[in-house]
Amino acid sequence: MIVDLPAITVTVRDHRRLLHTAERLAEQAHPLAAHLLHELRRARLCAPDELPDDVVALDTFVTYRLGDEDTPEKRMLIHPDDRMWPPAELSVLTPAGLSLLGVRAGDRMPLLGADGSADACVEVRAVGPRVTGAFVPLETPWPGLLNERRR
Description:
It is a single chain. This protein is of the alpha/beta class. The chain is built from 4 helices and 7 strands, in the order E-H-H-E-E-E-E-H-E-E-H. The strands form 2 sheets. The protein has a 5-stranded mixed sheet. A hairpin with a 6-residue loop joins strand 3 and strand 4. Helix 1 packs antiparallel against helix 2. The termini are far apart.
């Protein structure tokens, strides 16, 4: 059965970061690495300030419904290195998280990389708010720390 996948849009910054992660995970034979690489290859890229408000991106809250579940969930889609508050997060390296990356409110996407039924899907109910400037990758010093080091 061939399924038409909804178009996805990813910011250039997220694409670069996720591509690096996917390549690293592919070397380790991670089960979702190939799915992530495929999604990144088919993604339309845009600048962060050009990303439509209704598109799911990293560091964005998304309200979604899995399969036939009645109750939607609301979580923030995150890069796995950015875990801060697990009950409110959904890693892009889970079948649901990967399936949500880059889709728009109202889209239905097959659950990528899941071992379940072929009919399993995720439906995006709402997108937002987007969290900006809250997360600093571990290798990036805080701006105040840079000033301290220069003294």
